[in-house]
Amino acid sequence: MGIEFPRQADGSRSSTAAGARIVAAALRALDQGRAAQAAEAETRWRRRYPAYFRQLIEAAVPQPEAALASARAGLQAAWQTLVWDDSQGQSRPLAQALEQPEGWPLGTMTLKGAGASSVQPWTVPYKGQQLHGDALLRQLLDWVENGIIEASAAKALGRCVRHPEWFDLSDRHIALLGAASEAGPLRWLCRWRANLYAVDVDRPEVWARVADRVLVGNAQLHLPIRSSSTARADWTAQAGVDLLQDAPRVAAWLRSFDRPLDLACLAYQDGERHLRVSLAMDMVASALLRAQPASSLAYLATPTDVFAIPELTAQASQRMYAARPLLTRSLQKPLHLAAGERFFQPNVECLLQGPQGRRYGLVDSLVLEQGPNYALAKRLQQWRALWARSLGHRVSLNIAPSTVTASVIKNPALAAGFAGASSFGIEVFEPETTNALMAALWVHDLRTDRGAADPRVELAHPFELFMDQACHGGLWCTPYRPRSALPFAVAWGWLRRAGRS
Asked: Within 10 Å of residue 341's Cβ, how many Cβ atoms?
């Protein structure tokens, strides 16, 4: 029961066929008919998907309206391709399942923090220090100068330093899908007097961790219970839901509070489940925005994706590539040729002409090991963000730096690549640093009318929503396309690890 890929003629379910169909729909909306046909006919989708994701961005840069049409087409294709299997084994469209939830309505359990009522000051844990005030401003400037974050991110975070009153969230009602996410903002929200609505998997140990954070803070948290009993002795056994099976009931539960919510879509699952859970979150988001148009959306984007980037950032990458020492060039050349153009490709090959005389670079930081389902899951979130903002909703979509979360380091190749990333000007962050930075950027996006999150702020191109305040960790400024340098970063990472052992 729940959200599934459609069955093929032989009865199997193929995430590859579904993913190619969704991407093809988005390409057709950009008048990329040949590319769409090629995507649907692609026999090596898991190896070649980056080319199609790249074309989605490249073709959309010159035509802003088509970028929005492509986002809408991709979303519609996803909703029409995946299905909802009900308790009777019948497949239904997702929209129908959303309107007709199965099962009893979810109950509510409420936890209240018993900590100090004052708002805890925002600080950024970094390399053993708690940065705040002038020290934090200096670090932000250092990150900008080293190409780790965009200047717009430093400006936004600097506003947070100057406006500590923003962090009193007692006036906000914040819903978290994937509340216990390692990279999520829960630990900070629990210290900032927020009214929280938390959704996560139905595992007692998860809710025990959530409760530990809530009870020492000053927030109030509502969570879904799968029965009418809310006895303290056993509530963790009844807490939580699986979004893959209960998205319609979660949507109904959130709507039952009858108020606008700031909804953050943070849930993560491995493999093809990540694509399904992203669409499950999209079901909830769609229902909430229809019921409460004043609601807002928030996402954490990954830097390991394809993006249009600001001209100045693109030029910085090009200068670094052009300034490679002669010895480095001579050593790279045979590798470059022997591998059929695979190794050490330039990160930004050229500048693309956009609207209003703007020019943008294009970076392709997709990592093959993460797979096409991960890439499409994150693209679905971008599509919803673009479309929702175009309809007048406030949308916070900030790119978070590569972070050594458990989901990353359990992949040996990715873990080694992260360990060697600094050799290529890329900084990988600890989870607590990412938590603090991204939580503050979300607060900024909720409080200010000076950022791209506010739909009243005019953007030259919809893609500037992703460029604004990006904390890409250096992936946009590095001289080489990350995928073309990853094998060497992995090798260097293995050597570093071996040297420490």
From this structure: 9
pTM for this entry:
0.93
How far apart, in whole angstroms, are the C-alpha atoms of residue 479 and residue 418?
A: 17
Greatest Cα-to-Cα distance within the chain, rounded to the nearest angstrom: 71
Question: Residue 276 CB: number of other CB atoms within 10 A?
Answer: 23
Q: How far is the CA of 74 from the CAs of 9, 53, 379, in angstroms?
A: 24, 12, 9
Q: Mark 420-430 as b/e (b = at least 16 C-beta within 10 Å).
A: bbeebbbbbbe
Q: At 384, is the secondary structure helix, strand, or coil?
A: helix
Report pLDDT for 461. Answer: 98
Q: Say if residue 485 is exposed, middle or buried (CB neighbours under 10 Å; 0-12, 13-18, 19+).
A: buried
Tokens of 282: 């999209």
Residue 330, pLDDT > 80, answer no
Nearest to 384 by CA among 303, 465, 468: 465
Q: Please answer whether residues 148 and 478 qualify as being in contact, where contact means their C-beta atoms are separated by less than 8 angstroms.
A: no
pLDDT bucket at 404, cuts 50 / 70 / 90 = confident
Two tokens, residue 271: 């493999």
- Using alpha carbons, list the distances in angstroms from residue 431 to 176, 192, 400, 426, 486: 18, 19, 10, 16, 22
Evaluated on CA atoms 480, 482, 484, 486, the torsion sign reads: positive
Residues 6+ apart with CB under 8 A from 28: 36, 73
| Residue 154, strand partner residues | none
Q: Does domain 107-113+131-308+371-401+441-472 have CATH number 3.40.50?
A: yes
Per the CB < 8 A criterion, the answer to whether 309 and 476 are in contact is: yes
Among residues 442, 482, 466, 198, which one has the least CA distance to residue 347?
Answer: 482
346 - beta bridge partners? 480
User: Quick one: tokens of 347?
Assistant: 């990160």
Identity (one letter) of the amino acid at 15?
A: S
Cβ-contact 198, 206 below 8 angstroms: no
Q: What is the residue extent of each domain of the chain?
A: 107-113+131-308+371-401+441-472
Strands 195-199 vs 220-225: parallel, antiparallel or unpaired: parallel
